[in-house]
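Item description
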Amino acid sequence: MASASTSMRLRLPIACIALEVILIILFGVAVEYDHDVSGEAGHKTNTTHHDYENEFYYRYPSFQDVHVMIFIGFGFLMTFLQRYGFSSVGFNFLIAAFSLQLATLVQGFLHTIMTGGKIHVGVESMINADFCTGSVLISFGAVLGKTSPVQMLTMAVFEVILFSVNEFILLCLLNAKDAGGSMTIHTFGAYFGLMVTRVLYRPNLDKSNKKNSSVYHSDIFAMIGTLYLWMFWPSFNSAITPHGDIQHRTALNTYYSLAACTLSTYAFSALLNHEGKLDMVHIQNAALAGGVALGTAAEMMITPFGSMIVGFLAGAISVLGYRFITPFLESKLKIQDTCGVHNLHGMPGILGAIVGAITSLAATKEHYGNRLSAVFPKISSDFPASAQAGMQAISLVVTLGIALIGGIIVVHSVSRLSHEEEEGEGRGKERRVGGTFPGDVLSWHRRAPPLWDPVPGAISMSNPPPPTPQLRVLEDATAAVTAPPLRATLSLAEDPLAKKRSHGAPKPGAEQPCWSECLPVWEHEATGWKYPAVGAGSITQGWSKSVEIVPRGLASSTTAPVRPEPAAEEGVRARRCFPRSACR
């Protein structure tokens, strides 16, 4: 593990410092305020320039909503993994902070090709940079748990460039309409990430499926991200649309699409379950598909009726994707989509592109009045609505092509930073047995005692622990789950270390329990609790068996729960202790 510590201590700081220094230099050379920020709008006119005419007053509320979606919405949505919560929200923060800076430069540079001069930044450039960052985070969701921080930063560099090029082709050269980013943000980010995760596929990946799962509290945190995204999605789709009726229409259409999508999600989630129960994965993700699917057509005259149809279809498609397509992609095409971005962003994004093409085909002066040129600047007697619809369809093909081909090219650069070199020998061993979700322990210092508090038996009845399943071994050596006891049989007298743990983390220099024995351990998949196993035999449904080190004081008990994951990969450094890896 020394190599892992050295790697994290050197590679990540070097990458972050080097990238930020380069960005600072480029900003100093090539970036300046736009006229709304520098005050030129008022200086260049003889008339009075009122502050409320500044673009900031119209755009900043939408920008802040989008900003919350990027850092809180996407960040918490990915905290569903039971052992990757720190990394999900923490690396989301890191990648987003880097990507928005680079996106400002790349998008601004492509814009200066047509206008000349320096890169001008203002509130609108901030929104566009966040849009680019959103696409990067969508791809991050596809490879979640399978890449190191430096690999993710490397991937972000290439994706920001490819995203900006694709966006420039669609919006500036093909004159496509995509205010909410069904094509440029969602479709591109999803299929770029899927291609990367396909090339990064490793044999025996199915052995890590139990790590690619959630627990009760992690799903609650993920649901917080869902609610933030759901509430602010109308702002996301309308953030850069023209002021007035167009922006109003965009928010309203998205609003009703999301509502219809939510009911569709609940309906199909229960319908596809044999017991009629809801799946939290469906609710967390598919309920957002209505916002994705209306990203292209939201500013068009699709009507609330049409918006609700699109939202309903998007929810159904997303749930069906989680139920049927995700297992197919993993088993047949070797694509392990950690967050299900194909179902939330990929397929709904394609649906949105198709809806946008159909809606633009029906664009006429009768429907839009004198605002037709504001929505479709190119439509005229020389450029009919059918031509605009053709450009919309071509834009979808271009997006898919750049995303898929770009993902293949980029992943070869990313894969050179091997996990063994990046995360050290400990991670490499886990990978060789098929592990892809190693947990936060490899990248984060967690201030927690060696065993989780509360420990049953170490807490007074005034604050009892939640009931935990009790494992008993039957006479025929078959493990079974009995009714959960209020507290386990282990007492303070049997575990002299429990009294220390009941008072929180040990003081510096205090004696730590030694992980000293390799024992077979039963692990309950729903709760994550582990119990030292006695004897051999078959296991009932919901339990899995592994071999791990357990504290000496707990070795003889069949009911004493063991922390699902130690605080450090090498175990607790104490006298006469040896690494946990010795049990592997």
The chain has 20 helices and seven strands.
